Amino acid sequence: MNKAVFIDRDGVVNSDQGHYYIYRVEDFIFNPDIEASLSLLKEAGYKTILITNQGGVAKGEYNTEAVEKLHDFMQFHLKGQNAEFDAIYYCPHHDSVSSCECRKPKPGMIIKAIQELNIDPDQSFLIGDSKRDIEAGKAAGLKACFKVKKNTSIFKEANEIISINSQ
Fold it and tell me: In chain numbering, where does the site feature Contributes to substrate recognition fall (predicted)?
């Protein structure tokens, strides 16, 4: 089985400062050390999996093509630094429009990834910047979840994850 780190997007991978929804390439700014953090996790044998709520799709603010274009841009940049995500899962739903099992704090995206990518939750972690991220990780049975301050580096947490599983 594989070990993985599930990572939230807005506020963790990229800055969400000044924008409620990030869906345009020109608004996407990587947070400090994200490339080094992802590369470090990958070198330690972790699959890196992006999980992100994109409720603006359900609300008609933008469409799935915009989300995928942004993810393509992000992956292209990260690939040049051996830091691209192994998989990306996003929830296009919003509670104000319809219900689903994938929108965090529900664990649907994480459970789907666990099943599809043969991931061992007992060796896997989550890094997020909100209570809903942490709740989703706990509900999916991950080993540990790290709540970080928005728009900051996750390098410390990446190192901590590696040291936890090497004990």
Answer: 103
